[in-house]
Design brief:
Length: 296
């Protein structure tokens, strides 16, 4: 056999082997001889097939969430840890404040003044096996929808431990402190801004103030303040809620809305020490200022 014939035979053999390896049976040979190669190629193909496709990104769930327009809580991973952390703060002298948030347009469920209050009470139901109900208080705050949205759900509940009110504090009403004829301070009980807090002295003052500004055209500025218990965000909301509560009392007395301005300082402008009960009581206030028209 001459050299040319040998080269020709080797060429034919190489073509035959190439056809067997890369031809119709290639996957079978490769799976048998090199399974890791096949696995890697398949993974690469799967990854490559997704190139250019936008996959939806799932948001991580919060420990507890609410759907818009619903008071029913939904718990997820992290809820048990959150509950344990709340229970760890439980002592005889503490009260757990559960704040439910809601926004304009959410209809209040039957039996509740607001959707926020319904949410807070539902959460208290979830915690009742771990924390005594008498050591939990429900509260609601109206906020902008964007402040509590998390994807398509709502981050609509907040927690905070505080000193339990004494029997005297439970029946305490808001008090009036008149600084001048143009400036008064309305001091509120803990976490409160509701009609039952308003005594006859405040009612009488608001009657006179309303009549005055309706005749004079003067402006009323309402500034809400809180003590320093709770987060800054929570206190800012509570301060505004208190100021808006007084605004609503004036609106009911016929004061035009354009003559009333509302803002909140939260806990940023204390007039007394927050280290004592008496000091915190002085800081929980709404400042009412009567000003000339156009003055800020």
């Amino acid at each position: 056999m001459n050299m040319t014939t040998k080269l020709l035979l080797w060429l034919i053999l190489a073509i035959l082997l190439g056809w067997l390896w890369f031809g119709p049976w290639s996957c079978c040979w490769q799976q048998w001889l090199c399974p890791d190669c096949v696995k890697g190629a398949v993974q690469e193909e799967q990854i490559g097939s997704q190139t250019g496709r936008e996959e939806p990104v799932a948001l991580a769930h919060l420990p507890i969430e609410f759907l818009k327009g619903s008071a029913e809580p939904h718990t997820y991973e992290g809820w048990e840890a959150l509950k344990d952390s709340l229970v760890s703060g439980l002592t005889d002298g503490k009260q757990l404040l559960v704040t439910g948030y809601y926004f304009e347009g959410e209809e209040a469920p039957e039996g509740f003044e607001t959707m926020g209050l319904a949410r807070a009470n539902k959460v208290i139901d979830l915690l009742a096996n771990s924390i005594p109900r008498e050591q939990m208080t429900a509260r609601s705050l109206l906020v902008e929808a964007a402040q509590i949205e998390h994807g398509k759900v709502l981050n609509a509940v907040d927690f905070g431990w505080e000193d339990r009110p004494t029997e005297t504090e439970k029946t305490e009403q808001a008090s009036l402190e008149q600084i001048s004829t143009e400036r008064v301070l309305l001091h509120f009980p803990t976490n409160s801004a509701k009609a039952s807090d308003v005594g006859p002295d405040i009612e009488a003052y608001l009657d006179k103030a309303a009549e005055r500004v309706k005749k004079s055209g003067e402006q009323i500025l309402l500034i809400g303040h809180t003590d320093n218990r709770g987060s800054d965000k929570l206190n800012t909301r509570l301060g505004r809620k208190r100021a808006e509560f007084v605004r609503d009392l004036l609106l009911r007395r016929g004061v035009p809305a354009k003559q009333i301005s509302v803002k909140s300082m939260g806990a940023k402008d204390p007039v007394a020490s927050n280290k004592t009960k008496e000091g915190r009581a002085q800081n929980r206030r709404v400042e009412l200022k009567i000003q000339a028209s156009g003055k800020e």
